[in-house]
Amino acid sequence: MKANKGNKRSQHQLFELFAPKMLSVCRQYIKNNDIAEEVMLSGFLKVFTHLNSFKYEGSFEGWIRRIMINEAISQLRKDKKMLFTDEKEIENSKDFVTYLETELEVEEIQKIIDGLPEGYKTVFMLYAVEGYKHSEISELLQISESTSKSQLFKARKVLRTIIEKQNILNYGTH
Amino acid sequence: MEPIKFEDNIREKLQKREINPSKDAWAKLAKQLDSKPQKGINKPIWFAVAAGFIGIVIVASFLFKDEFISSQTLPELVEETKLIKDEIPVENHSRVVIVNEEPSKKVTPELQPKKIVENHQNSTNVRVVTSNNKTNTSKKSEPIKENVAISTIDKTEINTSVETSQEKTFINLKVEEVVAQVQSMRNNNNSVSADEINTLLLKAQRDINSLKIVKNKKVDATALLNVVESELETSFRDKVFDALGDSFEKVRTAVAERNN
Description:
Helix content of chain B: over 70%
Oligomer: heterodimer
Distance between the termini of chain A: 51 Å
Number of strands of chain B: 1
Number of helices of chain B: 12
Largest interface: A-B, 45 and 31 residues
């Protein structure tokens, strides 16, 4: 891999290929577009300086994606925006799975997600979009698994409320 | 129409989404890349430096190994010799026994205890030499055992000279004792048999040998053998005869017959 040896042209090609997707990942966690781009650039800097760490075990895109998520979480932690309240409301988390009448456009989805508190949003995105387990989330965010579960429950509850307000629900609670 | 799960919807939409970065995004990143050294490139250089250093250390350890060992061992040998000399006051050097020791060589620390044992053995040997002329000649015929360190010989010589003077006094006492006994027997009986004289001589000889063993403080196999055999020493026998004078011709004859 030429980018591994510091070849600028190769690095530029990699950047052109993955930057749009990775900026979208960063934007999921960071509300501000400019800050999201700064986080993405910081993530690419790590990608290019740690290319030797990539073991070719998984997909290269998946490896870059994980770096971007870590950078976004570091940024949120730095801004002290992530607050996790350790509440024990995890029993009926699945009751708050929301069903829609029609598909939402991505801009609408982003708007709904941006309405969530940072702690809820981060756990929800890691669990629902990235497919992380609660054990992985607890390790990444340095919280307990029960906190992760309670944050997910609360995120789902708030999302339902937002969507109800927009009158786009299909059947409501199942 | 099936209901749409909200979470599936957002996952699908967000994973497909792409947001184009600003135009100067790459320029910013390139600038940051230029200012930050790449870890992957520097690694081999550091490995080479470390390997070179380790190589130098190994070569140096091989080169200076011999010098280091010799400088450590030599002073120990000299120190030991001094100690032995200091322990014993020098009184008499009259009985110097053959010593052909080469100047001290390099001796490894493992060999030193063995050397000390040899020294002790030789010191006992020399004591035997001073008390018995027969064993003295036999010792001279063994050149290997005579290769002793100079310091050890000094020690043994002093010991033997002190012990010899004490033994001489004791032997003289015994001679006088035997002569007195023979004269008293002669005065009482007018005649003394050869067996009676022989018994007195044997008893005196045993006393002398016992004294030697006690003074040695160590169980010497040669001395014990001498006690068992109870042979008369020529020097002691001659002294008794000189003391008794010519009138005791038959005593001499009796002893001569016994020896034959």
